[in-house]
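TASK: fixed-backbone design
INPUT:
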């Protein structure tokens, strides 16, 4: 699994503005080839998103120059994209550990 973190520097909005903006753009991501999940972000460092992709190729096909120009035109800042490979997930909600896509029960918690 590939994680892409998109940051739009200087984008400061209220929670209400960020939510309204996310609702408007959410349909762009519905059914997008290779995209598993997108989290919209709004915070001290600006706005952006965390995306979970099947492959880097699919992500790079989305984050092209046209995409960057549209984001910059809409928000007034050029986005940056940072990629991370993800090999292990601790999922407390599902009570499982996923290693390279294979699920197993979470180990017992360690004492703090």
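OUTPUT:
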């Amino acid at each position: 699994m590939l994680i892409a973190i998109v940051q739009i520097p200087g984008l400061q909005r209220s929670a209400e503005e960020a939510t309204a903006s996310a609702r408007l753009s959410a349909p762009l991501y519905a059914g997008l080839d290779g995209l598993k999940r997108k989290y919209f972000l709004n915070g001290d460092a600006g706005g952006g998103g965390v995306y979970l992709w099947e492959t880097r190729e699919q992500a790079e096909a989305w984050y092209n120059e046209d995409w960057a120009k549209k984001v910059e035109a809409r928000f007034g800042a050029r986005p940056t994209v940072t990629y991370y490979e993800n090999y292990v997930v601790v999922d407390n909600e599902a009570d499982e550990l996923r290693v390279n896509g294979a699920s197993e029960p979470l180990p017992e918690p360690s004492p703090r």
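COMMENT: The first strand starts at residue 2 and ends at 9.
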